[in-house]
Write a structure and sequence with these properties.
about 5% strand
């Protein structure tokens, strides 16, 4: 037979009485409200990017690096030009930047962000981009720690470097290095990350008749 618990005084000044729970409930309610606002703001921002289409963004979408490279070859074989307003980087700089991203996924990024950033904001950004199939980022933002891009670089040499990086990635069967912002990605996730990255940059260029 279970013992009957002892009775305790319940007055506000009784010895051993617990403090009221209202402040904690108010705190939790406020925290939940702020979290809801944060999620709503993030969702609104994502929807804004989905609906936004600036004049120099063709909003290309590719599922694989090979798909993106076919567009690279099409542009490289013709009179490729940046769409107005022109991006800060020219065609050769863009190709080298995209090659660097693929190379670093195999070799290691020189200046990765903290594990905390990768596991929170970085992972959330990749999830959002992956769900909508496109990424949106500053097209003139270098990879942290990467060698500076050369505006005078020869376009054919830049193209050859990107081709080699894409081939090396396709043939790679070993472990991949954590992305500087997104953190650890498997081969399929990296495939999507590189394809989205290429698509975002290629969207700012086209063939001019």
């Amino acid at each position: 037979m279970a013992a009957t618990p002892p009775s305790h005084p319940t007055g506000p000044h009784s010895a051993g009485a617990r403090p009221p729970a209202a402040p904690r409930r108010a705190f939790l309610k406020t925290g939940a409200g702020l979290a809801t606002v944060g999620v709503a703001a993030a969702a609104a921002a994502g929807a804004g990017w989905l609906l936004h289409k600036p004049g120099n963004d063709r909003q290309l979408v590719y599922a694989t690096v090979a798909d993106a490279m076919r567009e690279v070859e099409r542009l490289a074989s013709a009179a490729v030009q940046p769409l107005p307003p022109a991006t800060a980087w020219n065609w050769s700089e863009t190709l080298v930047h995209c090659a660097q991203s693929i190379e670093f996924s195999l070799q290691g990024f020189p200046a990765p962000k903290s594990a905390l950033f990768q596991n929170t904001l970085g992972a959330a950004a990749f999830t959002l981009f992956a769900q909508r199939g496109r990424m949106s980022h500053n097209l003139a933002e270098p990879i942290p720690g990467a060698p500076a891009l050369d505006a005078a670089a020869e376009a054919q040499a830049a193209l050859a470097r990107l081709r080699q990086a894409a081939q090396d990635f396709a043939a790679h069967t070993g472990p991949l290095q954590p992305h500087f912002a997104y953190g650890a990605l498997d081969k399929a996730q990296y495939e999507q990350a590189h394809a989205m990255h290429l698509a975002n940059h290629l969207s700012a260029f086209d063939v001019v008749a």
